[in-house]
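Can anyone check this?
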Amino acid sequence: MKTTEFKSMTNDELNTKLRSLKQESFNLRFSHATGQLTNPMLLNTAKKDIAKIKTILRERELGLTVKGVKA
């Protein structure tokens, strides 16, 4: 997903998405370890999406941005 899509989400939606991405990341790592992962780029995409969400949540926590609007 693009960063703008994440920024338009609420904190609750972001936390829910973060949990699902962490679960997906675990499943991808498990598949990779067993040799069943067909597209290893999915690991990188999941990691980057997790980082984007954590960054947005932290910015909001510090008051740097408010749901889609820069302060």
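Reply from J.R.: I decoded it. Helices lie at 3-7, 11-33, 41-62.
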